[in-house]
Specification:
Largest sheet: 5 strands, mixed
Strand content: 15-25%
Shape: globular
Radius of gyration: 13 Å
Distance between the termini: 27 Å
């Protein structure tokens, strides 16, 4: 099972990566708003606490990620949560689901928000 990594890559930028795959989604970033990327990580965490549909809506409506043209929010949620079991923020393991993260989004969201505090 792959891990979901939430990684700070420097310069105010954060990405969500799935280990052992080429899947990576950068959180939104604007040079004039250096905290935006971190705020987007927190927005994802809050949306996760309300379930899958809220995450999809938040990605679509709030632009949490800088998505390539044509990538649908549903695909992002599937990529990040349907085949991952462990969430790691930086180098710290913050949540392990019994099966996959998509089955326990609320708890994973709480853990992510706490890790970002």
């Amino acid at each position: 099972m792959n891990d979901l990594l939430i990684v700070y890559i420097g310069g105010g930028r954060w990405v969500a990566r799935v280990t052992n795959t080429g899947i990576e989604y950068p959180f939104r970033f604007l040079a004039e708003q250096p905290d935006l990327s971190e705020l987007c990580v927190q927005s994802l965490a809050l949306a996760m606490q309300s379930g899958r549909e809220q995450v999809i809506q938040s990605i679509a409506g709030n632009g949490i990620f800088d998505l390539p043209r044509g990538v649908q929010p549903e695909a992002v949620v599937s990529d990040l949560f349907d085949a991952t079991q462990t969430m790691i923020v930086g180098e710290a393991e913050v949540f392990v689901a019994e099966t996959v993260l998509s089955e326990e989004l609320e708890g994973a969201g709480q853990a992510l928000l706490a890790a970002m505090a």
